[in-house]
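Need C-alpha cells for this chain, all 208 residues.
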Amino acid sequence: MSMAVGSGHPPYLAFEGVEGAGKSSVAHAVVAHLREIGIPVVAVREPGGTEVGEAIRHILLSGEHHPRARSEAALFAAARAQLIAEIVLPALEAGSWVVSDRSAYSSLAYQAGGRGLPVEEVRRLNDIAIGGLWPSQVFLLRVEAEAGLGRQAVEDRIGTESAAFFDDVVGAFDALAAAEPDRFEVVDADRPLADVVADVLDLLKVTP
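Here are the C-alpha cells for all 208 residues:
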C-alpha cells in the first residue's frame, strides 16, 4: 500500500547507503540547492528528528543498550512512525519537498539484510509504522562496505558491526534497487562529493 511518485504530494526524497557513503553530506547539499532556487523543503534524518525519535536514536545508537534484532527493528519503526506523523506528512501536505537522510528502506537493508530478519516481516512492520508513505524517490549512494566504513567520521553501535554484516547490507540495498528500478536511482558514491551531488541534481532535474 505504498505511495509512489504521482500520489499528489511534492517529492519525498531519501538518501540511502551503507555507513560512510556520504548520505548526510549529499542530502545537505541538495537541500541547500533546493532552497537557493526557491523550492520549499524540509530536511529530516532517521532515526530522530522528533523528541520521541531522538530518544529512540540514543537507545539504538549510543552503545549503552543492546536490543535484539526484532526489538531493534521495532524501535526504528517507532521512531519512523513519529517522524512521519509529526513532520514528514504535514510538510508534504503543506506543499514542501522532504529530503530524508535514511528511510524505511534502511530497515529492509539493515534489519532484514544485515540481521537476517524476514524481509517481508520488516516491510510489513514499517508499512504500518509509516502509514504506507514510502519515499517517492530513493538515491542509493553506492559504495562498497570496506570503502564506506573507512570514511566513517564517528562510529555508533551499528557502525561497529562486522565487515560481513555490512557486506550483507550492501547486497540488500542492491537487491532493493534492482527490485524497484522506478523508485531507486543508484549513484556511484566512491567519488568526490561534488561529483556525487552534481549527478543527484542532474537526476532530479532541478536547476535555477
